[in-house]
Write a structure and sequence with these properties.
The chain is an alpha+beta fold. Helices cover 24% and strands 33% of the residues. The longest helix is centred in the N-terminal third of the chain and has 16 residues, at 3-18.
Length: 88
């Protein structure tokens, strides 16, 4: 077997092993800067306005690293993210 075929075989084996590793995916809707005092004053049913609108892209993160963007959609009684771009 040639070196390039061996390398390709090893990459496929590694990929198959990694296919079962679980990761955390997050959809980040937006953010807001606030003071500790405002944070301490929050009570149930308070609203925290974010810096984004409903039409803005949602950042998709895997284990804290941005991997792409999407848009919020409704699926039955739940929300989901339609992926619009993936980073390479």
């Amino acid at each position: 077997m040639t070196k390039s075929k061996e390398a390709g075989s090893q990459k496929r084996e590694t990929s198959l092993l990694l296919d079962h590793v679980q990761v955390e995916i997050e959809a980040v809707l937006g953010s807001r800067r606030t003071t500790i005092g405002e944070l301490k004053a929050l009570v149930e049913n308070d609203l925290v306005p974010l810096t984004t609108s409903l039409s803005d892209p949602v950042e998709l993160r895997v284990n804290g690293r941005t991997i792409g963007f999407g848009e919020i959609v409704a699926v039955a009684d739940n929300f989901a993210v339609r992926v619009t771009s993936i980073s390479q």
